[in-house]
Amino acid sequence: MFIFRYMSKFREQEKLEKEVNKAPSKTMGPAEVDVPSPQKYLLKHSKEPKLPEKKQFKYEDDELHSTPPIPGRTDQPLMGLHTNKNFIKTNAVENIMAVPKKPQLGYARTKKGDKQLLENSASCFRCSCIPCIQSILFTDYGQTPEYLIQRREEVKKAQEEYDHYVKERMREGAMKQLSGEERHNILQALKKNWDHLHHQYQGLSVVTDTAPKKYRKERLEQEMKQLETDVELTERHKTIYIANN
């Protein structure tokens, strides 16, 4: 029995392509690359970037603003020049006759004080006062801001809803309003209780060296503080509603 091994019909073509592609590159790289010369070997620091040659710095307008050269030793200055001008008197007369400079009008456009100058202020604004300038520049000057109007509407709406709720509860008989006399009596009773506790607090020992003394002092302070809160709340609100339970 004979076993035949499979032989591709492209075998010879593949061997030819392999030889063509591999044989020229058996050296140090492809054939089209030149072999480096032994005389041009790699030197130290040859691949590092090199700075350009140092040149003397010079401004473009040096010639316009340059100072004149120092006079030589042989140069003679002009001698014998005199003037009869009285500089003190001349300066005094110029300052007296000078017209004061008017500052240019401006306004602060931000809260940090950033100033914005006004162009043609003399022709545009007859009056230089700040309210007149602001009334011309800002159309909403002197008017109520939008957020305040919105806040006022929210407060008004909340008050109306609260009044409606109170009326409904009073109609159902679940709440009633304290009269002025009842409110006054409650307020006086709260103050009387506070005076009584305060009298007891004043009679406490100065030294709280035991646990019962400390506990009694803390209890009196807590009760007095609660009464103070109730008195303040009652005095602040003129209209008080209580639930009928």
Automatic annotation (TrEMBL):
Keywords on record: Cell projection, Cytoplasm, Cytoskeleton
Keyword presence, Kinase: no
Molecular function GO terms recorded: calmodulin binding
Signal peptide: none
Enkurin domain span: 150-242
Basic and acidic residues bias: start-end ranges: 45-59
Top-rank lineage group of the source organism: Eukaryota
Keyword Disulfide bond: no
Subcellular location: Cell projection, Cilium; Cytoplasm, Cytoskeleton
PROSITE patterns from the UniProt entry: ENKURIN (PS51665)
Region span, Disordered: 17-80
GO cellular component: acrosomal vesicle; axonemal microtubule
Alphabetical list of PANTHER family matching this protein: ENKURIN, ENKURIN-RELATED
Protein name as it appears in the record: Enkurin, TRPC channel interacting protein
Annotated source species: Cyprinus carpio carpio
Top-level taxonomy: Eukaryota, Metazoa, Chordata, Craniata, Vertebrata
